[in-house]
Amino acid sequence: MLENTLYVANIVDNTIVDGEGFRTSLYVSGCDICCEDCHNKELWDINRGTKMSVDEVFDKINHDMTDITFIGGEPMMQAKALAALARKIKKETDKTIWIYSGHSFEEILKNKDYYNLLKYCDILVDGKFDKKYFKSNLRFRGSTNQRIIDLKKSLTQNKIVLWEDKF
Asked: In this structure, is residue 140 part of a structural domain?
């Protein structure tokens, strides 16, 4: 994938389901994990997305006070471009960034491009959706095997620190 090009499936403004508070969710297309019973199977094909520059995406998602969520598809498939976008968000705003990935935190740390993206994010919801662990009342995740990880604390303390829901 190119460092300055993203394949965008959708942008959802003012959502409260993809992380804490009001958020703008950037749904990227393309998935290399393809979880059984995936909620977004139509996003598996990267060509289903609209090709946009990092600057175009930034302009579309930075129009109000909402924080940002990267979701998909599988954001790690576009890690280089998302890292460039996240770097721009952090440089020019005070928005938080949540990111969803079917890869585990441990897997992400082993990949230089994935890790470079995580450095700019605040919260990671990790792990594959697993239907046998599905619960309809979970906040911000689809199955109980998925973790909500506070990235800043985890990377500083060199251990997984789960996000504390204040709800």
From this structure: yes
CA–CA–CA angle 49, 50, 51 (5° rounding)? 115
pLDDT digits (tens, 9 = 90+) for 34-74: 777 777 777 788 888 899 999 999 999 998 899 999 998 89
Element (H, E) at 113: helix 112-118
Q: Residue 108: which CATH number?
A: 3.20.20.70
Question: Would 118 be classed as within a structural domain?
Answer: yes
Phi–psi pair at 51, nearest 5 degrees: -75, 125
Range of the domain at 134: 5-157
The 8-class DSSP code of residue 127 comes to S
pTM of the model: 0.94
